[in-house]
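Possible regression after last week's pipeline update?

I re-ran a chain I had predicted before the update to compare outputs. Posting the input and the new output here so someone can diff against the archived version. Not blocking, just want to make sure nothing changed silently.
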Amino acid sequence: MAIKNKKENQRIERICCTCGKIKSFNSCSSTRSDFYISSSPAYIAFGHMPFCKSCCLNLFKQYLVKFGNDVKKAIYTYCRITNTLFTETLYEASMGKIVAEQPDPEIFFGLYMKNVNSLKQFKNKTFDDSDFLYSSDNVKASLVFNKDFQLTEDIMKRWSTAGFSEDDYKFLEREYEDFKDSIDEDDKIRQMFVRDICIARLEATKARIDKRYTDMKNLQNHANTLMVNGNFNPSKNDDIKSLFHGQWIKHIENDMPITEPEKEFKDVNTIRKLIEVHFTKQVARMLDFITSKKK
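New output (post-update):
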């Protein structure tokens, strides 16, 4: 991609991957570059975006039109596409420096990109470290299970613990539904066990996402212990619905065996007799499974 590469601090040129034009590129802070710095691992070899500043601005303008001049949605979508950090603080700070009555989106975009690339607290940050506007963008979005979920006072009262996000409540409610049929509304002790189990599983899920595998294992063991202490262990539960598949089959075989068919239905087409005479007995004689008396 490099066109020219002379002595340090001299002009270096690269081709923009979007417009195809040759633009100035230089990693030296004292020399102006037509490419924005990027912390994305996809561009780690160059440390800059592969598209020039003009093309970045044009992309931002496209989203601005798409979202009806909603600057926040436009810059957020741009950051998501280019793997650039988005934070509410940085957005508000950049908006605050332009005229409030008639904000110029181009000036805002330049300020935002300048701040995100120059301030130390944003160094080596990507979109994964952003303040997410939509839960579907969050790497922890696997906790979300119901788009129509509404956080009510009853739900908050059930969990009675501060510090949960809306996605946390969604996860907890999903887990609670799995236990709902096995607890009585008046059984407060089992309800307490269910709440503790759900919270432990939530924290274990978060630990897995954050790659804190030791914490994850400890939390999973804690949840399993709570299930045993609360008599939610399937082997100790009389409710057939809660049995594992193998235990359910064993229950059928021991307590609900298939009875022998009536004589008239035993071998209607004599298939069993044919198999016994022409296959089973012949193989048995060959392998000497039939005694000499029977022979």
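Follow-up from reviewer: compared with the archived run. The mean pLDDT is 75. Marking as no regression found.
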